[in-house]
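Appendix C: a fully annotated inverse folding record. The material below is reproduced so that readers can follow the format used throughout the book. The structure is listed first as tokens, followed by the designed sequence.
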């Protein structure tokens, strides 16, 4: 049977469903000190596996049979009371519990205001719309992200313009931004993809120079920090997701944060049909004031969020500690190049643990066969994103009646668009190099991290035998 790499959500779902079946309390997780950003972590080399220990793909016993931590974690004894109180109250639509969640999320990330919405995608749509991004505008986006970053740009009628990535960090490359700015450019969406912070220190001055709105996509980056400041609070607005795989999971949900009161009032009005709110006000009884929609969060979703928020900081520390430990264990293996954080990153979120796989250095083994071998050893993994800057959804938007009316013909020529939006570094990440491990795996113990490192080392040691079977 041909090996079919899992999609991101299928990968996460499968990984979550093969867990312990019970929640891992922080007390049972091995804690190690988090190294300083500039510290060198000295650790023993991974175990070298001999030819007497054949790879699982070659008929041997998998290195690991133990399950991984489940996700999301739910503790009935601490988590259910608030949820049950909400359910029994009969007040399920937006009310006091949602407001409490918003206040606590704003305080957690260090923002003045927060508005909860139905998902991160609609958080971005609302933020773009209330900064008046519309048809005819261009919005700069990275190509290494989920479709949920680019779909909101199209939803407003704007044109996404792709800026290639820095492959070492997986983030948008600030050095490539200015070349993509035109008179139509109105905004930029830096994405803190995989939970690793983008280079806001360099992005913000460029945006200021060109008078661009900055909307941070922090959907995967809960509690990540740059110089001790939480991501999502650097730009004009920050958007978060609470979808089931996220580090704060409530099934579905999202949030917008900002220090701009007038903007947040407009977002609130927009998420409630455009009805009056705060500075979006008029004569009593005038009715709906602005174009809006219905994006309100429910009380029981907020109750789940409040319960899980209590553990988020501890879980984030555990992920960072295990990520640093694992990175140190695998970085000396030929062909394995772990993520790099920018120097001013003081904390990452590690929604995913990424590394680059380099076929030539790994004895010529293909990434596809590596992924298959690693999975067979009991280490779930994925190749991550496909190239987003040349997919048919873009041409579908360009062929729509609205886009045909809003843009000149030459801008909607799909072949020409793809040519203008080439991102070779992203192509290499997506098509050749990227490998992901999910965040719940980083909630395990040091032994769990050792298993990952040992499995990769085992595959490297016997790569020639795998190649011989092709």
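Designed amino acids, in order:
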């Amino acid at each position: 049977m041909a090996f079919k790499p899992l999609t991101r959500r299928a990968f996460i779902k499968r990984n979550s469903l093969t867990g312990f079946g019970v929640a891992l309390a922080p007390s049972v997780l091995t804690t190690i000190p988090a190294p300083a950003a500039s510290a060198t972590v000295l650790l023993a080399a991974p175990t070298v596996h001999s030819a007497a220990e054949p790879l699982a793909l070659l008929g041997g016993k998998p290195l690991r049979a133990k399950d991984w931590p489940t996700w999301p974690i739910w503790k009935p004894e601490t988590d259910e009371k608030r949820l049950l109180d909400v359910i029994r109250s009969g007040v399920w639509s937006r009310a006091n519990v949602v407001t409490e969640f918003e206040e606590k999320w704003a305080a957690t990330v260090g923002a003045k205001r927060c508005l909860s919405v139905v998902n991160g995608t609609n958080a971005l749509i609302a933020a773009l719309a209330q900064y008046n991004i519309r048809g005819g505008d261009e919005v700069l986006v990275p190509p290494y992200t989920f479709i949920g970053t680019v779909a909101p740009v199209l939803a407003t009628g704007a044109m996404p313009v792709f800026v290639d990535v820095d492959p070492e960090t997986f983030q948008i490359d600030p050095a490539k931004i200015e070349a993509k700015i035109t008179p139509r450019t109105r905004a930029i969406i830096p994405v803190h993809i995989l939970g690793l912070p983008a280079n806001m220190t360099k992005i913000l001055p460029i945006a200021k120079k060109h008078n661009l709105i900055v909307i941070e996509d922090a959907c995967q980056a809960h509690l990540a920090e740059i110089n001790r400041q939480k991501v999502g609070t650097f730009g004009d607005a920050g958007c978060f997701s609470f979808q089931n795989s996220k580090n704060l999971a409530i099934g579905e949900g999202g949030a917008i944060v900002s220090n701009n009161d007038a903007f947040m009032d407009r977002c609130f009005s927009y998420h409630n049909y455009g009805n009056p709110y705060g500075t979006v006000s008029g004569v009593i009884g005038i009715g709906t004031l602005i174009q809006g929609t219905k994006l309100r969060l429910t009380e029981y979703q907020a109750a789940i969020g409040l319960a899980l928020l209590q553990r988020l900081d501890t879980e984030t520390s555990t992920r960072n500690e295990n990520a640093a430990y694992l990175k140190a264990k695998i970085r000396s293996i030929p062909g394995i190049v772990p993520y790099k954080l920018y120097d001013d990153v003081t904390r990452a979120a590690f929604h995913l643990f990424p590394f680059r796989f380099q076929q030539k250095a790994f004895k010529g083994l293909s990434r596809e066969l590596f992924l298959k071998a690693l999975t067979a050893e009991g280490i779930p993994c994925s190749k991550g994103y496909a190239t987003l800057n040349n997919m048919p959804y873009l041409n579908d938007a360009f062929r729509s009646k609205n886009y045909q009316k809003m843009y000149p013909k030459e801008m909607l020529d799909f072949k020409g668009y793809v040519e203008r939006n080439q991102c070779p570094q992203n192509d290499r990440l997506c098509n050749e190099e990227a490998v992901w491990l999910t965040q719940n795996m980083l909630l395990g113990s040091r032994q769990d991290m050792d298993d990952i490192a040992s499995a990769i080392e085992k595959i490297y040691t016997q790569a020639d035998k795998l190649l011989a079977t092709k």
